[in-house]
Amino acid sequence: MAFDKKILDPIKHFLIGLALTLKGIDKIGHHAVIGSIILGFGIIILACFVYLLITKRASSRFDLVLHWFEGIASLFTAYIYYDEGSKYLHYVFLLAAIGFFISVYMHSRKHR
After folding, report:
1. Residues near 71 by beta carbon (within 8 Å), at least 6 away in sequence
2. pLDDT band at 3 (very low <50, low <70, confident <90, very high)
3. pTM score, whole prediction
4. What is the mean pLDDT of residues 28-48?
């Protein structure tokens, strides 16, 4: 059973928004500024997910902005995990951020 992009993109946005929201709530006590930023990005991404479900209209600019938010929030999350001394988890979020920024670059080249 093959999934298409119309199904996987909203699921991806939901999972990332949920993970960032939970991480922001968890870290707001230790890192007030960065935790608040991560929480804010997570809530924005979840709100965009709900918007996409309700309207069923995804534009290329909307997708591009979401990827920027996800990339920046992933960088902040990688920093927090690095600061906490994790062994490998900060690399996962760093790779995710790099993937989002590559996606932004490829998306902007495609839609020129």
Report:
1. 96, 97, 100, 101, 104
2. low
3. 0.80
4. 89
